[in-house]
Every structure is written in structure tokens, then in C-alpha cells.
Write a structure and sequence with these properties.
2 copies of one chain form a homodimer. The first copy, chain A, is α/β, with parallel strands linked by helices. Chain A contains 13 helices and 12 strands. In chain A, helix 1 crosses helix 2, helix 8 crosses helix 9 and helix 10 packs across helix 11. The first copy, chain A, starts with a helix and ends in a 6-residue tail after the last strand. Chains A and B meet through helix 4, helix 5, strand 2, helix 6 and helix 11 of A and helix 4, helix 5, strand 2, helix 6 and helix 11 of B. Strand 2 of chain A pairs antiparallel with strand 2 of chain B, so a sheet runs across the interface. The structure holds a DNA duplex.
Chain lengths: 334, 334
Amino acid sequence: MKVTIRDVAKKLNVSIATVSRALDGYPDISDEMRRQVIQTAEELGYVPNQAARHLRRRRTDAIGYILPAPEPRFGDPFFSEFIAGLGDESARQNLDLLVSTAPPGSPEEEGRYTRWIHGMKVDGFILNRLKQQDWRISRLTAEKIPFATLECNQDAAKYPNLTVESVESVSRLIQYLAGKGHQRIAYIGAHDDLVIQVDRFAGYQLGLKQAGIPFDPNLIFPGNLTPQGGFAAAHHLLSLPNPPTAIFCINDLTAFGVLRAAQERGIQVGKSLAVAGFDGLAESETSQPPLTTLNQPVYDIACKIVRMLVRLISGEHPPSETIIPELILRDSTG
Amino acid sequence: MKVTIRDVAKKLNVSIATVSRALDGYPDISDEMRRQVIQTAEELGYVPNQAARHLRRRRTDAIGYILPAPEPRFGDPFFSEFIAGLGDESARQNLDLLVSTAPPGSPEEEGRYTRWIHGMKVDGFILNRLKQQDWRISRLTAEKIPFATLECNQDAAKYPNLTVESVESVSRLIQYLAGKGHQRIAYIGAHDDLVIQVDRFAGYQLGLKQAGIPFDPNLIFPGNLTPQGGFAAAHHLLSLPNPPTAIFCINDLTAFGVLRAAQERGIQVGKSLAVAGFDGLAESETSQPPLTTLNQPVYDIACKIVRMLVRLISGEHPPSETIIPELILRDSTG
DNA sequence: TAATATAACTTAAACGTTTAAGTCAAGGAA
DNA sequence: TTCCTTGACTTAAACGTTTAAGTTATATTA
């Protein structure tokens, strides 16, 4: 049978309250008693029943992350690194991490949040892939549930967030391409309500402007953050009467699709076409050619967000933070 | 304030037992009453407090997965697809999925299991990356905690497992390479106690034997399941006085490292060197050249294992299952 | 008609903690 | 001596469910 607090209390002939307080470090327990309690708890292999503890403490020591997976099959390396970071840091903070998946904006997604909020499954949430108008943010704010985010939208002041600076950074990358002589630089993005799309696209436009290159709407084509999306978009762009000589992609995955499309068309990436991404996935280093990208330290970011959330849960107001991605130049841009 | 079962009971002037039983579908509740209960529960936004429920039911409706991440930074796409599958299927089964990470065999790993087992955090576990002698299996068996696995070791009879047939399949791949004229086929594996290493290496040896190629220990070099490992191993193998003309890698990630090493050495993969992997990662399709591999449907596998575990938890004895990976021939083997 | 079965509830105990409030002996101050 | 502190506990009430064991009124059977 499972060993409970009662078992260790009985063994020592003390009340369960004493055991509880001894283990929790209350000062009204003698040193000798505390020593004994800790020892027998250890001996018997006592571990507090979490359900009972949560019920009583009204706090779960768990945080939730609902992975915004657009489709059932979904293998974005960004998220495996992100989850590894969340998992590691949660464990370090003695928190449990609850993970689920749901297509963004779907009824299932809402259901998951509702269950976890009202069922008191978690003390707070981690969010990412924010939208400009994000129902999750309104909802969590309204219900006063703590959360911390990667990226931020117009309500950024209301919650702690970790933001990877994108406008200036992308602009810098675009200017680098322009400096290499590219005049027709295409942009493959994603859905317009995504914060990352808005920011990175703004960076693209800023970059063009600073390089003195006129904006050409024909060079903008939407992807969907996957290689498939990038593949299709690249084929479209490269079939234009006046095709681009460089393509900036909203993320590395998209860029991988572009690389494939180019290869299929016999276009030498790095020579007659420059391609760049955003994320700094491990794969970007080994793609052929290796991909120029804006690297964000996903694992560390995940850890930091967990720490932010922990502080928020314990009543503090952790400041938001901005991280500058590192521009990594590789062969895909010559 | 949080709405409890008491609130909906009060509103209807019935006992909380009635509400509980009405919502749980017990037959001793009149249809009219049940209708009312369901309706007011809905109206008030009642969601059962999970902690209370678990405490009383002695069951958590959660399953756990501790990701065997060898190092803090860790971005294996295999695992993101695997977790997506676990997450989706758990949600479908109305289960919560607890995720953590810990280096295999580390004290932290053991700590996580202990906490979840004795703290009654989960009803069962999902395991993978099994070892021949796997303490997790002994431990969970001893404590009578349900678990289901991907892969199986010598104790396979004791737990439901989903196994991807490897010996015959790898053998088939090796024979295909032999059929292409390769006589010096190298093998880059991983640590010897890993089940996947044992199986895939056995397949390699069987393949050689059936093709009538003598086994050459110089062509065996260990990796560590990462591109870095594959990269280093490939450089070693390709520096041999009599280097291999084909390299089979224990997984795709390793193969990606090999591709990079070959490229660095100016070796044309697909022409003067054949490379093959195992996993069928999405990236294998877009690598350059695209990678010949044994494809396993990771997402579906994850879903199936969750369903197995669910059946096991509810007292059934689900049969184990074997899946045959699909041999996908791509340019990396010419 | 009386005894019995059934439908539709209610009562109250449990699940294993935490914690506010209470007890009680020993020591110190007046 | 008596009163007040203090240290070191104990008691008992929660936390919000589920569920075994009642309790009725009504319907059915002998």
C-alpha cells in the first residue's frame, strides 16, 4: 500500500500535523523531532500525495502548455527544443509541466484551456505563437490566471513576456542581402494575424526602405510555417516573369522548403539565389547549403519564460525582456 | 470565486450527491433531473476540481512521459512528433499528459519517476529508448504501475509494447545496398545497451550475411544518435585506408551528420557514397540529397501506445504489436 | 390489504493533506 | 506564590469530490 503521512506519524507516535510541519520547515518543531521525521519519512519512502496537497493548498505546482499544432502530424524541431526547455526548467523549479496540443483557434483548444483553468489543473500557462487579437490572452487576463509568453501583442503591458527582437534584426538581414547586390528580395510569411508575421514583415519592409529598394507586392507570398508552404511559395515566386534573386522566409522550416524547390528547379542556392530563414534550428547548420538565419536560443528562452511564470505565480511582477537574435551567415546567401 | 458542485446543488435545491451522479451518468437519476443538472452546470460553468476528484477516485486521469534527453539542449524532431502524438491522443482520451525531461540513467530521472509514482501524479507511463537492462521497467513492474512502451527488451512479455520491426527491415536495406554493388557497408550506431542499437545492428549483420558479405569490424563506429555523432563517425570512417562505399546509420539524425561530413570532404553522396538512415523524419525528404530511410509513422505510433496504456490502466491486457517500417529509397543511395 | 420491490433521491464518510486554533508543561517575571 | 510567555506539540476543520449505505414515496405483487 501507499505510504501516507499517517504512517510516518504513527511510527513516531506523533500527530500528522507535526509530520507535515516538520517536513515543511515550520519553526515550531524541535530540531530533534524534525530530524526524526525526516529520517523516518525517508525510510518509509513517504512522498506527499499531490492530489491531497493541491486540494488543500489550492495550488497545483503545475504549469500548462498547449502546443499550437495546426495539424495532427506535426514535427517542428522548434517545439521539441522549446518543450525540452520548458520541461527541464519546470523540473528544476519543482513544477510539473502539463502538455497538450490543439489547433490554434479550434474549439478543442478552448476546451483544453477551460478544463485546465476551472479544473484547477495548473497554476499558470505558457503561451506562444501569439495572434494580434488573441482570445487566450483576453481569457486568461479575465480569469486572472497567470501566464507568460514568448512574443507579445498590443496588450504586452499586461503580462510578462519574452520577446525576440525582430523588426530591427530582420531589417539588418535584408540590408545585408541588399548589400550583396540583391534588388529583388522576396518574403514568404504566414497568416497575417500572427505576431511573428507582423513583426518579421515589418522588419522586411524596414530593411527594404533603409536599403532604398522599392516595395513590390508581387514578391510577397504567404506560406504556413512548414516546408510544404515554403516549397509551394518558392515555386510560385520563381515562376514569376521577373523572379526574386533572394528570398527571406519567416522561419527556417519554410526556408527548407524553398531550398528543395530551388534544387528541383536546378537553381544553385547561394549563387543565383539567396535564401535566409529565422529560428536557427540545428538543421539549418546541416542543410544544403547551410542556411543563413537569425538564431534564437530556443531552449534558454523556454527556461526563462518558465522562470518568469514562476515569479508571476508567486506574486511578483517580473519585467519583460527582449532578446536580440544572432545573425548567422552561411552559404545559402553566398 | 470558483464554482463548485455545491453551487450547482444549491441552485437546484438538491444534494451534491445528486449532481455528482447525474453528471457521471448513474442510472438512479431521473431524466428530468439529469437534464436540469447538466443545464445548470453548464450555465454556471461548473468544471469538477481535478484535485478533489483524483483524491477521492484514487486515479489521476493523467499519464506521464519523461523524455530521455541526453543533454539540456535537445531538439530531435523524432520527439516533437512523438510528443504531438502523445498529446493529441491523450486529449482525445480525456487524459492529461505530464511531460518532463531527464538524462537517461541520471539521478534526476529516477527522482522524477519516484515523485510521479508515489505522489500519485499519473496513472501510467509511456517509455521509449529502452535499454536491454532497463531500471525503469524493473521499477514500474515492481511497483505495479502500468506502462506501455515503444520498443521492447527481453522482458517484453511483461508489458504491452509497440515494436517497429528492425532486424528484417534493416537487413532488407543492407541487401538493397549490396544489390547496388556495395561491398564495404559501414554501420554507425549508438550505445550498446540501447535496444534500438542491438536490433538495428543485428539487422545489419543479418543483411551482410544474406548478401554474402564478410563482417568487417573496422566498418563499425559508434555515434550518439545526433548529427554531431554522425559527423565525427563519418570523418573517421572516410579516413580509413579502405573506406566504406556505403554507410547505414542508426537514425536519420546521425545520417544528416554523415551527409555534412561527406559534403565537407567533397564526396558526392548518392554517387561515390551511399548513405541511409532510420526514422523517416520529415527532414529526410528535404535533405540534400534526400535520404534513403526506413520510415516509421511516429505520430501514429505515439497514438497507439497511448491507447494501449489506456486499456492497460482500465484492467485489460492489450496485445503488443509490431509495425513494419517502410523502406523509402531516395537519392542518397543513388 | 399487507408485504415487497423499485425509482429517485439524501446522508455522511472517506480520500490525504494543510493550517488555524487550542493545549499543556516548563521557564521567567512580578 | 501567581501570572504570563514561550516552545512544542495536538486537535479538528477544512479543501471538493465520490460512493456506500441509507431513506422515502410510489408501484407491484401475493
